[in-house]
Specification:
The protein has about 140 residues and is mainly β. It has strands at about 15-20, 25-30, 35-40, 55-60, 70-75, 85, 105, 125, 130. The strands form 3 sheets. It has a 4-stranded antiparallel sheet with strand order 1-2-3-7, with no helix packed on it. Strand 5 and strand 6 (about 85) form a beta hairpin. GO terms for molecular function: 2 iron, 2 sulfur cluster binding; metal ion binding; monooxygenase activity; oxidoreductase activity, acting on paired donors, with incorporation or reduction of molecular oxygen.
Length: about 140
């Protein structure tokens, strides 16, 4: 599994997103209340650029005559036809068991990079001359 640095936490503040291209895929990275989520930037309905859609909340189960709104900042709405997806797991709101958008693991931290490996050769100093030895 390849890991890619997409930016620093101060570049994607709560409620913001960043769309990046990784390994030929367009992916939206969202900061939802301080937790980061990544989804493929393609609606499964007609491949609209999903991540340019509006992020909002949704109505919650409630008693008849009541209107409860919640989950603000967790629901991504497709800009073309209004299909809604849960950013926390990629599932659609209308049919979560059969329709979803691909999600990707996101972590915050430091990537341990290996220092570049350089090919080295022994060096000897003889009679004020510098000599490099290459053994093949």
């Amino acid at each position: 599994m390849a890991k890619h640095i997409v930016g620093n936490t101060n570049e994607i503040l709560p409620g913001q997103k960043k769309i990046v291209s990784l390994e030929g895929l367009s992916i939206g990275v969202f900061n939802v209340h301080g937790t980061y989520y990544a989804v493929k930037n393609s609606c499964p309905h007609q491949q609209a650029p999903l991540c340019v859609g509006k992020v909002s909340g949704t109505t919650l189960p409630s008693k008849p005559g009541e209107f409860l709104y919640g989950r603000e900042g967790e629901i991504l709405r497709c800009p073309w036809h209004g299909w809604e997806f849960d950013l926390t797991n990629g599932h659609s709101l209308f049919d979560p068991n059969r329709c979803w958008v691909k999600t990707y693991e996101v972590e915050v931290g430091q990537v341990e990079e290996e220092p570049p490996k350089l090919e080295t050769y022994p060096v000897n100093v003889e009679e004020e001359q510098v000599i490099v030895s290459i053994n093949r």
